[in-house]
Amino acid sequence: MKNFIFIFKSAIEDFSRNKLRTFLTSLGILIGIFAVVVLMALGLGLKKYISDQFETMGKNSLFLVPGRVLSGGSFTGSVSSVSGRFDDRDLQTLKKINNIIGVAPLAFKSTKIKGLLKEDYGDIMFSSETFADIMGLEIDTGRFFDKSDVSKKTKVIVIGSKIATDYYGSIEEAIGKKITIDNVKFTIIGVTKSKGGGGMGGFDYDKYLFAPYTTGFIFNPDKRFFRLSVKVKNENYISQVKEDIKKEFLKRYKDEEFSIVEPTELMSAITSIFSVLNLILVAIAAISLLVGGIGIMNIMYVTVSDRIKEIGIRRALGARKSDISYQFLAESVLLSSIGGLLGLGFAYLGVLLAESFFPAYIDLLTVIIALGVSSAIGITFGVFPARKAANLEPVEVIRYE
């Protein structure tokens, strides 16, 4: 134990005499560890962000979209070539299926919106009263439209928090005000809570407006829907309801013309894509670790040459080959560990800055991997120089000039 302490103390003393060389040698490892840790932190943050978005949705929900979207747990990108949209007949079919307690059709309208302070183009989602529950939308002020509003085709609207502040100055000021959509006036009855700039499917709900789909028939006379969402009585009925929906829709569509998707399936497919992408990026960043390791090996070879006489004297005084080998191996490990710790420190600062606009974070496993990899690089690339130093003959190296 004392021998190891002496070896590491000796290595530290040597580094303190060559601070600039020590830092420059560790720089490759520093950059590599920084890049790998930051990318891993971003990957973890992205996974958590996606998970949080799906957790706000009801577990007992299903989505019907045109075309074959998922196959074997991955996206296919196939879109229906027939109509690409559902209609009111499909909506009524869903309402008749057992154990479905709510159906939320979805239609879009992009048009000019005029408020108190602003006039600009925006997007409106037309759906049913079930939409807020299925998509995890919460109301900040006011209320969401209800079943009565849908059945009576009431010209009421719920707006995102960003729309409220941009068009009316504040959330409170927006309630009860009129907003004009394509020359049709709607009364604002509610403002949604901010979802932090994103929602399931890539929608930024803070910038959207929501109105009853029946009222939306003013702009959608064909009664076509981009998507149909259903709320099932409870999770135990999910499989049965999927089968019942498929059976009914196959009477009208071919199998490849529609998909019935669970939120968990979407989450699994999305996270698998991002996991592969993140793995590729981490692998690319790891190249700098390889370069850093080669740099350490080169500098250790130079160090062996610079300290040949010292090695000869130590061997002549009784130092074993293993002592010399451990000395240079310890220096190599310390060099890479210094780079690893500095890289981890800079990565932590980078992640702290990123947290203000993205939910990145570093977990314990990432820290262990970072320090473990940097130490492993020191051992791997330090073995050859250490071996060379240990195998030098005492008599020859003492006479070396």
From TrEMBL:
Domain ABC3 transporter permease C-terminal: 283-394
InterPro entries tied to this protein: ABC3_permease_C, MacB_PCD, Macrolide_Exporter_MacB
Domain annotation MacB-like periplasmic core: ranges: 22-247
Alphabetized UniProt keyword annotations: Cell membrane, Membrane, Transmembrane, Transmembrane helix
Pfam families per the UniProt record, alphabetical: FtsX (PF02687), MacB_PCD (PF12704)
Gene Ontology MF term list: transmembrane transporter activity
Predominant place of localization: membrane
Source species, domain of life: Bacteria
GO cellular component: plasma membrane
PANTHER family: ABC TRANSPORTER PERMEASE YTRF, MEMBRANE COMPONENT OF TRANSPORTER-RELATED
Protein name: ABC transporter permease
UniProt organism field: Candidatus Roizmanbacteria bacterium CG_4_8_14_3_um_filter_36_10
